TrEMBL record:
Plays a role in transport between endoplasmic reticulum and Golgi. One of its GO terms (cellular component) is endoplasmic reticulum-Golgi intermediate compartment membrane. Belongs to the ERGIC family. GO terms for biological process: endoplasmic reticulum to Golgi vesicle-mediated transport; retrograde vesicle-mediated transport, Golgi to endoplasmic reticulum. It is a multi-pass membrane protein. The keyword Lyase does not apply. This is Endoplasmic reticulum-Golgi intermediate compartment protein. Keywords: Endoplasmic reticulum, ER-Golgi transport, Golgi apparatus, Transport. The keyword Endoplasmic reticulum applies. It comes from Strix occidentalis caurina. It is found in: Endoplasmic reticulum membrane; Endoplasmic reticulum-Golgi intermediate compartment membrane; Golgi apparatus membrane. The lineage of its organism: Eukaryota, Metazoa, Chordata, Craniata, Vertebrata. InterPro entries: Erv, Erv_N.
Length: 99
């Protein structure tokens, strides 16, 4: 009984293939096609190995140096907003009237 269940499940899985196989009449093997495939596979494998090698051999090099030029100044711009009430002599309307 269990074997029949497995066979049904296997047949069901074959029918649910999301990417159906290409019919055999469309497939044509040739020596040039095999050569291109081998060259492409070799190139991809070589590039993958080289990228992994570069990734493993890369090191961060930190260099610190004391600034010996005491005459130079570092310019720092600061934008500050202070949330306080403004205590002005003139109101806004009075300042426009004088213009």
């Amino acid at each position: 009984m269990r074997r029949l269940n497995r066979k049904k499940t296997l047949n069901l899985m074959k029918e649910l293939d999301a990417f159906p196989k290409v019919p055999e009449s469309y497939v044509e093997t040739s020596a040039s096609g095999g050569t291109v495939s081998l060259i492409a596979f070799t190139t991809i494998a070589f590039l993958t190995i080289m990228e992994f090698t570069v990734y493993r051999d890369t090191w961060m090099k930190y260099e610190y140096e004391v600034d010996k030029d005491f005459t130079s100044k570092l310019r720092i711009n600061i934008d500050i907003t202070v949330a306080m009430r403004c205590q002005c002599k003139y109101s806004i309307s009075e300042s426009f009237e004088t213009l």
